[in-house]
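Now for our specimen.

. . .
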Amino acid sequence: MWPAILGPVISGIFSVIDKAVADKDQAAAIKARLQEMVLTGQLREIEEAAANIRAEASGDSWLQRSWRPITMLTFVALIVAKWLGFTAPGVTEAVELALFEIIKIGLGGYVIGRSVEKGIRVWKER
């Protein structure tokens, strides 16, 4: 979600930097530092999401461990039901697209969380 929001903002800031800073080397250094700050923030956000998923997955309650997969499966079932012709009246294309976005975010969070978790494990073993 954040890259979609930050992308246009960063591009706008870069164009302002190009116009405001006459020295191209200095402008490039400012842009590089800004990109580094954005990437560091995104990495921190990914690490926090992975920590949340790990905490939920190792929780004591069955519901705490399973709510995320159950929610994703419910949304997938709604999409499949629509494709098979079983849908409530009034479900618009906008609602379907919103379900797709939720599924993409949910699956993306899981994949990123697992990737970060495995990467940290490999890094610690070195």
The chain has two domains: 1-58, 61-126. The radius of gyration is 21 Å. The chain is about 85% helix and 0% strand. The mean pLDDT is 76.
